[in-house]
Amino acid sequence: MTRRVLFLALGGNRPRGVAAESAEVVAAGGRAVVLVDHLGPWHGPRLDPAVEVVELSRLESARRSTRLVRAMLYGLPHGLFTVIAQGPLRQPARRARERYDTRFADRVHRRFVLPRYRPGWGAEIPSGLRRHLPDADGLDLIVVADAVSLPYGLGLLTAYRAAGVAEPALTFGLEYAVPSGRLR
Fold first, then answer.
1. What are phi and psi of 126, to 5 degrees?
2. d(Cα 150, Cα 11) in Å, to the nearest integer?
3. Distance of alpha carbon 159 from alpha carbon 152, whole angstroms
4. Is the dihedral of CA 29, 154, 58, 21 positive or negative?
């Protein structure tokens, strides 16, 4: 019986499908946790109120090291652009700030910072996420909703294996986990 299901939907590509499948888990009396990167794509589909939604970017941004890096990459330079953007320099400073963000800060953040605090989850589950998951031996199924989430699903399985607990099943949808396509 599938009772505790974690939906990994970090790419945000299938919000309607994940909303329907998580509602099916809740309707069958189970617990559904949906892990998303940002809540943006999730404003359209209505998730069941009993579904727990965890925003990974919010968990990561609460870390002190993340706040420090963001302040250095974005906060200080944006403050300098604000000071410079007076009078006739307003438009050139705005364009320079946008170029700085897209050509330097975003690239540095994506290539060097993200791999440090979002390493793909090897043998351990990030501590901020751990409290939102069912107990290690209490998770029945991990549903990988998109390609972005696949490394995280495999990392979770590795973490459960390293902890020596029963691994949950990994699938791409509820219809693949249960032969009839329904929860029993």
1. -55, 135
2. 10
3. 10
4. negative
Report the phi/psi class of residue 183: left, alpha or beta, with left for phi > 0 and alpha for psi in -120 to 50: beta
Q: Which of 183, 177, 141, 104 is nearest to 7 (CA)?
A: 141
Q: In this structure, are 132 and 163 located in the same domain?
A: yes
Tens digits of pLDDT across the chain (184 residues): 458 899 999 888 888 899 999 999 999 998 898 988 888 877 777 888 899 888 887 776 666 777 788 889 999 999 988 888 888 888 999 999 999 999 999 899 888 877 776 655 555 566 666 666 655 556 888 999 998 888 888 888 887 788 787 788 889 988 877 543 445 4
Tell me the angle at which helices 76-84 and 90-100 cross, rounded to the nearest 10 degrees.
160
Q: Phi first, then psi: give them for residue 53, nearest 5 degrees.
A: -105, 125
In a domain, 34, yes or no: yes
Residue 57 and residue 124 in one domain: yes
Residues 37 and 107 in one domain: no
Quick one: how far is CA 126 from the chain centroid?
12
